[in-house]
Each structure stands twice: as structure tokens, then as C-alpha cells.
Design a protein that fits this description.
- This protein is of the alpha/beta class.
- It is 28% helix and 26% strand.
- Strands 2, 3, 4, 5, 6, 7, 8, 9 and 10 form a nine-stranded parallel beta sheet that branches. A six-stranded antiparallel beta barrel has the order 11-14-17-16-15-18. The chain has a two-stranded antiparallel ribbon with strand order 12-13.
């Protein structure tokens, strides 16, 4: 038994990660860059190993993170790729942004002004990308019809602001994962608003710089929106669901989350199983105890809803998921024994547990699953 595989662990295949990155590059126009989104510890896969694997094959690609601490962790580890903080950073951190060559999103006119003041006070220049709100209604300069003219002036002002160097502009599609005609129409509307702002800048003699709109789904399905760079997260890690793909994309899940069968025991008909008696056996049953629980990131809400695989068999969760264990029904599988590996997520040999088995019953997004796998679950990295 390898170190770290005794109870609950996750195997991350960096070779498959690189294959996914190559596949995504093949789906977008030649010369278009990728921004590999490594926020939340690379969606739970490990930001540093993922960054090193990707920079080895496409060193000109960018990295996207959510906050300054994530960017600084990468810089401290020697990662030299361009990094964009996609969200808010305290303006007083302008000296750190400049010192470590970290690009900051300009999320509003007020924030731009504040960041410029702090940069000027420190006599530094901060690299920036301007964020446009084309319909997400979260952060960014608003680009709806009623506010477009005012925003166009403010965005142009941001490009001309001393101590800020705007080298790009971007937006975020709210509905690119949807497949309905109204979703596609909304994405198209957002793209038109984005391009209108870029054209307004060019008419004033301002070069927008790197333009990027596409998330994972848009990068795969809508290469006509690719422009200069595409931001990929879920697709990079192989978790873009088949239902979200319009174009074929050979993307493999890079993580296999595993645990052990701790024990096998029989329960009679009518037995209450786990906390709060949330399951009662309708027949004589055989249960396997799995060495993972909600403290490892296996959602408690998967009580009586989850499914895993053991020796290729699909085994449903029975009873409430505990902090460190849960039970599955193996009544029909006498070959299952204590010590067997249990596959909770991903692919191992011929067995697969798709991410949908975990997030669809709970109404969650894909990223919630891997981001929720806790630090006490060791990551074991494989490379070619």
C-alpha cells in the first residue's frame, strides 16, 4: 500500500491535465491564449503542481486566480506566468501587485480611482485588465444600454490613468453553460455589448489589449467568441459535463478520489442505519463501510442519494453520511471485501464515477465537488 492510500486519497494525473490543455488549445483559434483558472487551489487539484505542469507545455498562457493570496503563493513557488486576479483586492495592496507583477481586475470606476491613488502614493504602476459587466450583474463597468455612454468614458479614463497600465479587457458570460436558445441568445447579447465597448475604445485611439470573454463552456462550444484569450477551469480538469458540450471535446477527468472498504456486515430487514435512522432496511442487507465522510468533502447531503463504485459495481449510499464514514449497499456483490478500493469520483481503469453523480442530486455546480475535497485528503500526483 502506497503512503497516503491507506484511508482516503485523491490521485491527480498531470499527464491527463496536459492532454486536456492541448485539446482545449486545439478547439480555439490559432494564436489564442488560454487562461488556466487555478483559483481555490486549482479547484481542489493543487495549484502548484497544476501550474508547473501547464507552464511546462504552454509557458505563454496566463493563470487566473480569485485573490491576492493565491497569486502570491504561485509567485513564491517560482511561477513566472502572467497572473490575473479576477476579483477584488484591497487597493492598499498596490505595492505588492506591482512588486510581484500581478495583474489586477478593475472592477468599477470607484475601485479604479482608489487603486490608482494607492499606486501613486507608493510610486508604483499596477498592471490591470478592465472588467466589463455585460449582463452578469456582479462586478465590472456596466454595459447595458442605459449606462453604456457613461461607462465608455470611464473605461477610457481607466486606460489613461497614471500608475495603472491596462493591458486587457474582459467580461464573463452568465449563461454559457446553458443549451436553450434563450441562453445562447443571452450570451450573444453579452458578446455584442463587449465588442461595442472595445470598438468605442478603438474609436478614441485606445488599444483594448488582450480581450477575453469565454469560460470553459464557451471555449468548447463557441470559438467565435474566443478573441485573444479564453479562460478555462472546469474543462481543464475534465469536468465539463457531456450535457454542456455542443462540440465534441476529448477531455478526461484528471482526479480519481478513492477510499477503502473498512468493514462488511449484514443487517436484518427493518434495521435502522446510521444517524437519525434516515434509512431502514427493507430486506436483509449487506453493507460496506467506506472510509470517507463529510469531513473529507463527501457531502452529507448525499445521504441516501450518493453512488460509488467498488470492483466495478455501482453501490448506493445507505443512511446518513457521517463525519468520517458512510455505508453503501453491497448485498448483490459478494466479491466485495474489506480493504477494497472504493471509487468516489473520477476514473480508474475501466470504472468511472462521473461528477454528475455527486452534484446533480444536490443542485450544485461541478466546481463545488472538487473544491470541497478537504485538505486532509492527500493528493497523489502522477506524471508521464
Amino acid at each position: 500500500m502506497e503512503i497516503g492510500t491507506g484511508r482516503c486519497w485523491a490521485e491527480v494525473d498531470l499527464g491527463l491535465l496536459q492532454d486536456n490543455c492541448r485539446e482545449l488549445h486545439s478547439l480555439i483559434p490559432p494564436g489564442c491564449l488560454l487562461m488556466n483558472v487555478l483559483k481555490a487551489d486549482a479547484y481542489g487539484h493543487g495549484a502548484l503542481p497544476v501550474a508547473r505542469a501547464l507552464t511546462a507545455i504552454f509557458p505563454k498562457d496566463w493563470i487566473g486566480v480569485a485573490c491576492l493570496s493565491e497569486a502570491l503563493e504561485l509567485r513564491a513557488a517560482g511561477i513566472q506566468q502572467e497572473i490575473l486576479i479576477l476579483g477584488w483586492t484591497p487597493a492598499e495592496e498596490a505595492p505588492l501587485l506591482a512588486k510581484y507583477n500581478i495583474t489586477q481586475a478593475l472592477i468599477s470606476a470607484a475601485y479604479t480611482e482608489e487603486l490608482a491613488l494607492k499606486a501613486a502614493a507608493a510610486n508604483v504602476t499596477v498592471q490591470c485588465h478592465v472588467k466589463l459587466d455585460t449582463g452578469m450583474n456582479r462586478i465590472g463597468y456596466p454595459c447595458d444600454e442605459s449606462s453604456f455612454a457613461d461607462s465608455a468614458e470611464l473605461v477610457a479614463k481607466a486606460y489613461r490613468t497614471p500608475h495603472l497600465q491596462a493591458g486587457g479587457i474582459f467580461t464573463h458570460f452568465s449563461s454559457a453553460y446553458g443549451r436553450m436558445p434563450e441562453d445562447e441568445a443571452y450570451t450573444a447579447m453579452q458578446f455584442r455589448r463587449f465588442m461595442k465597448m472595445c470598438q468605442a475604445l478603438e474609436q478614441q485611439g485606445i488599444k483594448p489589449g488582450l480581450r477575453h470573454c469565454c469560460s470553459s463552456a464557451a471555449s468548447v462550444n463557441s470559438p467565435e467568441y474566443a478573441l485573444d484569450m479564453c479562460r478555462v477551469g472546469t474543462a481543464l480538469y475534465g469536468h465539463l459535463a457531456e450535457s454542456e458540450k455542443i462540440r465534441p471535446a476529448n477531455l478526461k477527468t484528471i482526479m480519481a478520489w478513492k477510499a477503502r472498504v473498512a468493514a462488511i456486515h449484514s443487517v436484518p430487514q427493518g434495521a435502522a442505519i446510521s444517524y437519525n435512522r434516515m434509512a431502514v432496511s427493507e430486506k436483509d442487507m449487506v453493507l460496506a463501510v467506506i472510509t470517507a465522510g463529510d469531513a473529507d468533502g463527501y457531502f452529507r447531503q448525499l445521504t441516501n442519494l450518493g453512488r460509488i463504485r467498488i470492483r466495478g459495481h455501482v453501490c448506493p449510499v445507505v443512511g446518513r453520511v457521517c463525519m468520517d464514514m458512510f455505508m453503501v449497499d453491497v448485498t448483490d456483490y459478494p466479491d466485495v471485501t474489506a480493504g477494497d478500493e472504493a471509487l468516489l469520483l473520477g476514473t480508474d481503469d475501466e470504472d468511472t464515477v462521473p461528477c454528475e453523480w455527486l452534484f446533480e442530486p444536490l443542485g450544485l455546480g461541478t466546481s463545488a465537488v472538487t473544491c470541497n475535497i478537504r485538505p486532509r485528503v492527500p493528493r497523489i500526483y502522477k506524471s508521464r
